[in-house]
Automatic annotation (TrEMBL):
Keywords: Hydrolase, Metal-binding, Metalloprotease, Mitochondrion, Protease, Transit peptide, Zinc. The lineage of its organism: Eukaryota, Viridiplantae, Streptophyta, Embryophyta, Tracheophyta. It is found in: Mitochondrion. The gene is LOC104611543. Its cofactor is Zn(2+). This is Probable mitochondrial intermediate peptidase, mitochondrial isoform X1.
Length: 722
């Protein structure tokens, strides 16, 4: 995923893009100032307290630029100065965000938190500054901007200001500001509740837990008479050994996949999907606050407010797309459901046994292994992390004629000994950008995988270009008895997904950082990441780097074909799940009834309408669905991206995925432009007009390539949707 800072003043995504090759030769690459040691290459961050000076200097420089803009210089100077304010402030916001999520030193985290709070207060001043707003209107309307990108920047900045309500009467603006503060607090509370209340289940005896996952769990014991559990090291009496399952998403996933004991799976599923209960009320307040904000802004719902700037343009378009997909996928997903149910009945030898939600991972995993003779540890033996990094190097060299190599970190630049710094270098164009890799799991670190911006690319002068700097953060763990992580294939796919975001940033050569890389409309942002997932499945790519950790043997093609076969076995069920998630998101933030809706009932009804799986009464999985925060009413964008990526892969990449010609098309027609061009134009120029279709004043992806890939074409034709 793209980790996005919550700023109105800037576009909501991250850095990327590239000027045409013949232009790049005229620029001197400007790297971060490493003359002084400091975190992320910022000399001011030599100590944790440096964040205080970092904020103060950003505010001081922005103040100078505001004074300059207030004097109404030329339109191009207004746009350039506005972009410098955005770049200055975003450097603080993004650095603080990365630090808060990854730094092991508590003092750095606390100072980053303080910096984030102070700079967000300053953002309120920027977002309500009428001098800046009036200057942007002048730049947009006076017709003197000579490039499309400059005009687009002025237009985008005006829209961003107005999304914050600056054009409204004072009383409404004050309420909008209050609501935005409330929403930020509710989002933070929602996230903190997920971390602080993962819930747990105690299981006795220990033999009920398979050995392959015992290392993930906490050993506990209890007196043989069965009184409440206590630590294993408690003394006195005969103890019965057991395990405490902390039902955070990662641990819960492993328990559901590997545990034969149905009762253990059931307890874990119910407990894990019933926490944190406090988020039910938090979500109710978030929905109400966002709805009120949208109505003040003149929209019928928050979904309408959030979707309007995107390609889809309205919730009606999004819902049409989602309901079409739901209709297409339902028959095959139902077939898969019946197959899983029949397999369970055969294994359990009980004719009346229902298929339960806690059965899915366990039985589908068993069916995949049985059908394709797959062993996850055998697959992982071909993907030591070091070789996977070599695979990323192969991609950039084959596609873009560039090299991707490690360079030394200066003292104080890194936040942990495991961090690597890489440079993307082109033999003719020089350095293109910098990437920090923080790939190993550790306590207190951001729990998922994400792409963080640190610095966006932008033109500084006729000869100087500010290079993009980003971080790729994952949580890979070494398996038992090994010092080096060997990745499951889904982890390899995740690594390539996040690297797709990183390339979108590193190849950035937009004039303005406001458009750099992943700073694009939401329903385009995930497309490069989804595209590069295909590279993690193509044997022509895998054979270049996937080698056995001890023998050096190249991964057998037969094994890769088995992996692909296993992936396809329940592909319709997985697609249906993503459609279901997107429908939850659209419905919760859609038009509201007079009486507040019970979100548990909404989610349960949608599950029954759009899947064959039961909704377990009393559970509320959605209180852990943190995409409702940053991607509120925007989760559909993942499905847009899947459709776009399927078309790009088939039409541009599949014939020769590692050729310079393929890379050149991706770079010059798509990746290098970030948000500086209309997204629909980018997609049409890369693939052709058939890539999308217009519907009800919005844009819907062509779903035929995704349907063909997932063997859903017959269902689509029967429903007359294609």
């Amino acid at each position: 995923m793209i980790h996005r800072s919550a700023l109105m003043f800037r576009s909501k995504h991250l850095p990327s893009c590239f000027f045409a090759t013949h232009r790049a030769n005229f620029y001197t690459s400007v790297a971060p100032d490493n003359g002084e040691s400091g975190l992320y290459g910022f000399g001011v961050l030599k100590t944790a307290k440096g964040f205080r000076r970092f904020v103060d200097e950003a505010i001081e420089r922005s103040g100078e630029l505001i004074s300059y803009i207030s004097g109404m210089p030329s339109s191009i100077e207004i746009v350039q100065a506005m972009d410098e304010i955005s770049d200055t402030v975003c450097s603080v916001v993004d650095s603080a965000e990365l630090c808060r999520n990854t730094h092991p030193d508590r003092e750095f985290v606390e100072e980053a938190n303080r910096a984030a709070m102070k700079i967000h207060e300053y953002l309120h001043f920027l977002n309500t500054n009428h001098s800046l707003y009036n200057a942007v209107i002048k730049a947009e309307q006076d017709g003197l901007l000579q490039t499309k990108e400059a005009w687009r920047a002025a237009h985008s900045l005006r829209i961003d200001f107005e999304k914050g309500g600056i054009h409204l009467p004072r009383d409404k603006l004050e309420r909008i500001n209050q609501l935005n503060v409330n929403i930020a607090h509710l989002c933070r509370e929602f996230s903190e509740n997920i971390v602080n209340d993962p819930s747990y289940v105690d299981i006795f005896p220990a033999s009920r837990i398979p050995k392959c996952i015992q290392h993930l769990l906490r050993p506990i014991s209890r007196p043989m008479n069965g009184t409440p559990s206590e630590p294993l090291w408690s003394r006195g009496g005969i103890k019965e050994k057991g395990f405490r399952i902390t039902t955070d998403p990662g641990t819960l996933s492993s328990v559901l996949q590997w545990t034969p004991d149905a009762e253990v799976r059931k307890q874990s599923y119910i407990q894990g999907n019933s926490a944190p209960r406090a988020n039910l009320s938090v979500l109710d307040k978030l929905i109400a606050s966002r709805h009120e904000l949208a109505q003040i802004m003149g929209y019928k719902s928050y979904a309408e407010f959030a979707v309007h700037p995107n390609m889809a343009s309205s919730p009606d378009v999004v819902m049409s797309f989602l309901l079409d997909l739901s209709t297409i996928v339902r028959p095959k997903a139902d077939e898969e459901f019946k197959t899983i149910r029949d397999f369970k009945l055969k294994r359990c030898d009980q004719r009346n046994e229902d298929l339960e939600p806690w059965d899915e991972s366990y039985f589908t995993g068993m069916m995949k292994s049985s059908a394709y003779n797959l062993n996850s540890s055998v697959v992982a033996s071909y993907f030591p992390l070091s070789q996977c990094i070599e695979g990323l190097k192969v991609l950039v060299e084959s596609l873009f004629g560039a090299t991707f190599y490690s360079i030394p970190l200066t003292a104080g630049e890194s936040w942990h000994p495991d961090v690597l710094k890489m440079v993307l270098h082109h033999p003719e164009e020089g350095d293109l950008g910098y990437l920090y890799l923080d790939l190993y799991s550790r306590e207190g670190k951001y729990p998922g995988c994400a792409h963080f911006a640190i610095k966006g690319g932008r033109r500084i002068s006729e000869t100087d270009y500010q290079l993009p700097v980003v971080a790729l953060v994952c949580n890979f763990s070494a398996s038992t008895g090994s010092s080096t992580p060997r990745l499951n294939h889904w982890e390899v796919e995740t690594l390539f997904h996040e690297f797709g975001h990183a390339l979108h940033s590193l190849l950035s050569r937009t004039d303005y950082q406001h458009f750099s890389g992943t700073r694009v409309v939401l329903d385009l942002a995930e497309t490069p990441a989804n595209l590069f997932e295909y590279y993690a499945w193509d044997y022509r790519v895998l054979r270049t780097f996937a080698r056995h950790y001890s023998t050096g043997e190249v991964i057998p093609e037969k094994l890769v074909e088995s992996m692909k076969g296993a992936k396809k076995m329940f592909a319709a069920t997985e697609l249906q799940r993503q459609v279901f998630y997107a429908l939850i998101d659209q419905t919760l933030f859609g038009e509201q009834s007079f009486s507040p809706r019970d979100t548990i009932s909404v989610v349960g009804d949608l599950k029954r309408q759009h899947t064959s799986w039961k909704h377990v009464e009393g559970t509320h999985w959605h209180t852990r669905f943190n995409h409702l925060l940053n991607y509120g009413a925007g989760y559909y964008s993942y499905l847009y991206a899947k459709c776009f990526a399927a078309s790009i892969w088939k039409e541009v990449c599949s014939e020769d995925p590692l050729s310079l010609a393929t890379g050149s098309a991706l770079r010059t027609k798509f990746l290098q432009h970030g948000g500086a061009k209309e997204p629909s134009d980018l997609l049409k120029e890369l693939v052709g007009d058939d890539m999308l279709r217009n519907y009800n004043n919005g844009i819907i992806p062509n779903i035929s390539n995704l349907c063909e890939e997932m063997e859903l074409m017959e269902h689509a034709k029967q429903k007359s949707i294609l």
